[in-house]
Amino acid sequence: MHSYLFQRRAIGLIGVALPVVLIVGKILLDGGGPLDSISDYHYSGMRNVFVGSMAATGVFLLSYRGYGWFDDLTGDIAGMGAIGVALFPTTPFFGDPDRTQRLIGRVHLASAALFFAGLVVFCLFLFTRSTGPRTRRKVNRNAVYVTSGLTMIVALVLVGLVQTVFHVGVGPPHWVLWLESIAVEAFGVAWLVKGQTLLADQR
Predict the structure, then answer these.
(1) Neighbour tally for 13: CB within 10 Å
(2) Distance of alpha carbon 39 from alpha carbon 177, whole angstroms
(3) Among 29-43, 109-123, 126-140, 146-160, the least confident range
């Protein structure tokens, strides 16, 4: 039980800390303002932090075991997505990317889609289940899980609209970066709650 709580808390802490650490760290190390997306930090002085954080999240998710095969499958899918994000960088935002770089960028996007799809399933369908009495704290936790899952969906849909319809994803005010950060923070909070760091049952 304690190992599962540690995994959940570790995933949650990485999620909550990652956007802040990347943005602030890049400004301190490289100077300049924020980049256009979280994935773009692969090409900054924070590359190792980004890759290491996503790889660690992937390992935790792959080793995560819930209450049945569907929990395990969801963790495996999200974990493979996270590791794919770490191993396959997004298409470079500078210069003239070649065919290989664009192909790797598509693998990155597919991996990110798997990662977030798994996290949404956890929040909306798995974390909300009850194996015991539905306490007031459990009701409150479920509200956080549902809110987190819906927040991720809305934020990622808006990312797609910003990039493909409105074409305002590049340069200030860095809409894609902030929307992705909201999605990552939402999954981090959900996992901290699941790890009983927040809203734990009163003893």
Answers:
(1) 16
(2) 9
(3) 126-140
